[in-house]
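Here is an idea for our session: we take a single protein and study its fold together. To get us started, please write out a protein record for me. Once you have written the record down, we can walk along the chain together.
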Amino acid sequence: MKPDNEPVRVVLADDHDMVRSGIKALLGMVGGVDVVAEARNGEELVALVDAAPPDVVMTDISMPVMDGIAAISVIHERHPEVRLLVLSMYDTVDFVKRAVASGACGYLMKDAPPFELEQSIRSVMATGSYFSPAIAHRLLQPAEPTANDELTERQVEILKLIAQGKASKEIAFDLGLSPKTVDVHRARIMERLRLNDIASLTRYAVRKGLVKP
């Protein structure tokens, strides 16, 4: 147990300096909470935690070099005592479940009211978990179908490459197919998912965890 007179040490991770500064300023107004370090990506975050494990890590998901979920997985394996909180703009069940499976014990949204920052830290320190009401509500909803439920294995493979920005010729070369065959698959994917453009396909792939945000 942490002594009552010792502050809760927090490490923040977000690749946007302004966002990180805003969160730090809000936490600075919370008594008994001390932001001891900041990271711009998952790799920096892991290094900071390895050097001096904090009580709580509050991290974004979408970051360069190493994303938040990958960093959570590494930190949870090396430092299981550290509470790992996700602060993200992504509210889909897929993202929440991936974060929890990697070791996160809490999840809240970036558009949450400021008081939730304090509430989330207090809660994970006292009970070991915190999920904002909006996230908890989503987790109680029936599970969404996965990409593998909606598409064939080949279609999922092609969708991943489309979401990575590859053209039909590049995908055809990578998979040993003809560009025409790739175009047919893309049309069938759009038909199955009822999506009409590449941007929508990319958002779907990100939401389902097929590609990194």
About this structure: The longest helix spans residues 179-193.
